[in-house]
Amino acid sequence: MPNYGPMQITKNMKMADVIHLNYLLLNILSRFNITLGFGDKTVEEVCGEHKVNVEFFLEITNSYHDENYFPKKQLQGFPVHLIVNYLKKTHDYYLDKKIPEIAELILRLTTQFPPSTLPGIDLLNRFFIDYKEELTRHIQREDDSIMPYILEVEQAFNSKKLSGMLFEKIKAEFIEKFALEHDNVEDKLYDLKNIIIKYLPPIEDQDLCNQIFIELSRLERDLNNHARIEDKVLIPMVMHMERKLLEQGAYRK
Amino acid sequence: MSSLKIILFCKSPIIRAGVVSLLNKLSISLEIKTISSIDKLGKMITIHNPRFIIYSSSYLTSDNIFVLNKNKNPGIKYIEIADRKNVHSVNIQSDIIITLDNSEEDIINTLERIIPENNGQEKKNAQTGIISDREKTILRNVALGKTNKEISEKLFISPHTVITHRKNITAKLGIKTIAGLTIYATLNKIISPDEVMRL
């Protein structure tokens, strides 16, 4: 089928051109520890210098760049720990960078209204603090319990040795339960966007509102992409390894 | 204004014509695509992007059912036309079932219940985002932290009605979460900030 989507990113493109093509990909670079100043080097060269698996980098950037590009198959060919590392970096980016930035902007926004003119405007700060806690809980659960489990499964899969404890966890459908409970962390962002453009009285500094809206939209999109990788790639990979491990009878008493 | 997109899949020309004529009795603008062969269904779903698929269950077999299941999309509602009640050759999870021995009135009521925005004024409000007084009352109670059950008992309405109101409020305002609705209610003085216990 012909592809009418956006231009695909390839390893022979200049890294600078990739960023010109979609500047939002700048966010991805830092998750791979790729620094700026790449001159005229190609994607492949830059990745090589930073010891980044170029094929993996391309799959991630392309799926981020074009929502319809989703090469489940290709991504599923990579070692799980590459994906886990990438996802963890993304988690840090949300919690350490994006969320505090947006919280700061919202605080600035709420001080634009004298409390007497718009009672309840303070609730907007509380709303975002609550959101931050919700997202933190969500991420901590993944970092502290799901990701170590996934790495354990990968290790067992590679060594074909399954410990009794891991065997019990697989039997108890640990990952299936996680997949079922993997909750949506984007609804509140959507609500906040509507509150800002539809329901807040206009303020003089409209740029501030614009900025918040843009930041929320980017975060929303990023979270969306992130969740797709978790739900559509990572979890199926883990389930596949679990099945193989059980089939192989890798656990022996 | 965009009209409601429907795919009608049924082999029998008599049933197809009958369903179209009944659908046209609803006071909504509709865009109906009819198809007689299941082979075209998958493609049609992609192109037409329907909100509803109406299908006759009598032509579904275990061999072709996968087309419907594969394309089962949470955004699409399925209306099944069955010969008689409780007789399904193959089971897929339809949202609602119409049987051939239903009366015209029954069918229209059923369709009106599942197909939203059938009332002209409601449609206008849904677009302008104006919420009714009743919805304001519901919203106030939601913002106060009341559960659906508590609201239904307080207002003497069924929990189902509370849920319908809440869905309509969310659709009109574009706000999904209780915390978001609470902020809206405060900004619009439906509830005072002091009354907010938790977001």
Description:
The complex is a heterodimer of chains A (253) and B (199). By secondary structure, chain A is mostly helical. Chain A has two domains: 15-69, no CATH class; 78-247, no CATH class. Chain A is 70% helix and 0% strand. The model of chain A has no long low-confidence stretch (mean pLDDT 90). By secondary structure, chain B is of the alpha/beta class. Chain B has two domains: 4-114, Response regulator (Rossmann fold, 3-Layer(aba) Sandwich), CATH 3.40.50.2300; 120-195, Arc Repressor Mutant, subunit A. In chain B, strands 2-1-3-4-5 form a five-stranded parallel sheet, sandwiched between helices. Chain B is elongated and about 60 Å long. Classes of the chains: A mainly alpha (253), B alpha/beta (199). The A-B interface holds A 118-124, 126-127, 130-131, 187-188, 190-192, 194-195, 198-200 and B 129, 173-177, 179-184, 186-188, 192-193, 196, 199.
In short:
The complex is a heterodimer of chains A (253) and B (199). With 253 residues, chain A is mostly helical. Chain A has helices spanning 15-21, 26-31, 43-49, 54-65, 72-76, 80-110, 123-159, 164-171, 174-181, 187-199, 206-247.
Give the helix/strand layout:
The complex is a heterodimer of chains A (253) and B (199).
Chain A: H1 15-21, H2 26-31, H3 43-49, H4 54-65, H5 72-76, H6 80-110, H7 123-159, H8 164-171, H9 174-181, H10 187-199, H11 206-247
Chain B: E1 4-9, H1 13-23, E2 30-35, H2 41-48, E3 52-56, H3 65-70, E4 77-82, E5 96-99, H4 104-114, H5 120-128, H6 133-143, H7 148-155, H8 159-173, H9 178-187
Parallel strand pairs in B: 1-2, 1-3, 3-4, 4-5
Helix pairs in contact in B: 5-8, 6-8, 6-9, 7-8
What keywords describe this structure?
heterodimer; A: 253 residues; mainly alpha; 11 helices; B: 199 residues; alpha/beta; Rossmann fold; five-stranded parallel sheet; 9 helices; 5 strands; 14% strand
